[in-house]
Amino acid sequence: MLNCTVLRGCLCLADRQYGIVIDSGSSRSNVYLYEWPGEKQNDTGVVTEIKNCRVKGDGISAMKVDPQKDAASWKAFQVCMDDIINAIPVAKQNATTLYLGATAGMRLLHKQDEKRSNDIVASLREYLSSLPVDFKSASIISGQEEGLYGWVTVNYLM
User: Fold this and answer.
1) From residue 107, how far is each of 30, 70, 101, 103, 130 by CA, in Å?
2) Residue 153 has what pLDDT?
């Protein structure tokens, strides 16, 4: 266990926790890295976005399932993931949770071509689970869930 002191009200590295959220919309994917104190006052903690990366190219609904057949899309995704993961202290990477939420573009693709959308999500799950973080899920979220997350975010920021 690391022993550290509090300096000027800041928590030491050992007390920080991290999480990654990938917002995969209809036209693009954005990767966000969040940080929060491990020790919380009154069972609450302030979550701070410390880094984000926009994946170059179209949304995941335009990706090909096979990374070899769509090297540019997969490489762009990998560039962002490497950038985000490299911002996390190595000692904290395997405890960093990772979630991908696919929104409108994948909901539409799922209605038009369920097999292709399932294949894309499965391929992303395979890739994300190979990273040195704690991959939790990749799923197509409902419009209601997307709205709720937006509502929570807006209210938090206010």
Assistant:
1) 17, 21, 11, 6, 25
2) 64
- What residues form DSSP beta bridges with 17? 36
Residue 7's DSSP bridge partners are 10
Task: Please report where in the chains the tokens 């990998």 appear, as a residue.
Answer: 78
In DSSP terms, 155 is beta-bridged to none
**Residue 21 is encoded by which pair of tokens?**
């959220």
Query: H or E element: which one contains 98?
Result: strand 97-102
Q: Give CATH for domain 13-157.
A: 3.30.420.40
Whether the CA torsion 56, 57, 58, 63 is positive or negative: it is negative
Inter-residue contact 19 to 38 (CB < 8 Å)? no
Residues annotated as catalytic are 146
Does this model's pTM top 0.85? My answer is no
Nearest to 85 by CA among 127, 139, 26: 127
